């Protein structure tokens, strides 16, 4: 069972995504912002990180979080997929920061699940 770190600051979105991912058979651990996600990642290995672009009230956004994950030896190879309601400029920034995938909000769940499976499959092949 793949383990996913879900980083999202909105409780409604966190609960919905966590439930859907768990129903799909994934083990899900959540964090509400970048610093919390970095702390959790130090104690739990993950197969994929799903992060929002912005965290209300936090100085760290999803792009900075991605850069820190990609710089750390323990999370460098973990695929990061960003979700955002913002436009193309955020997608370009996310990819430049090292994100492996991007999903625009409002998202279609089948597209999100397909992107997650693709990234997990790609990571498995690279190992």
Topology:
Elements: E1 3-7, H1 11-23, E2 27-31, H2 34-43, E3 48-52, H3 62-71, E4 80-84, H4 88-97, E5 101-104, H5 109-126
Parallel strand pairs: 1-2, 1-3, 3-4, 4-5
Helix pairs in contact: 2-3, 3-4
Molecular structure report:
- Helix content is 48%, strand content 19%.
- With 127 residues, the chain is α/β, with parallel strands linked by helices.
- The protein has a 5-stranded parallel beta sheet with strand order 2-1-3-4-5, with helices on both faces.
- Helix 2 (34-43) packs parallel to helix 3 and helix 3 (62-71) runs parallel beside helix 4.
Number of strands: 5
What's the number of helices? 5
For CATH, the homologous superfamily is named as Response regulator
**Spans with pLDDT under 50 lasting ≥5 residues?**
none
Counting copies of identical and different chains, the oligomeric state is: single chain
Tell me briefly what this model is.
The protein is of the alpha/beta class and 127 residues long.
């Amino acid at each position: 069972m793949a383990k996913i770190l879900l980083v999202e600051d909105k409780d409604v979105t966190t609960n919905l995504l966590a439930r859907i991912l768990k129903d799909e058979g994934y083990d899900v651990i959540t964090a509400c912002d970048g610093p919390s996600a970095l702390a959790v990642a130090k104690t739990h290995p993950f197969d994929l990180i799903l992060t929002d672009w912005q965290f209300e009230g936090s100085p760290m956004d999803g792009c900075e979080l991605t850069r820190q994950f990609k710089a750390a030896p323990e999370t460098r190879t973990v695929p990061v997929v960003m979700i955002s309601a913002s436009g193309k400029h955020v997608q370009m920034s996310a990819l430049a920061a090292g994100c492996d995938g991007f999903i625009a909000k409002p998202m279609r769940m089948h597209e999100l699940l397909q992107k997650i499976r693709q990234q997990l499959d790609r990571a498995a092949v690279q190992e």
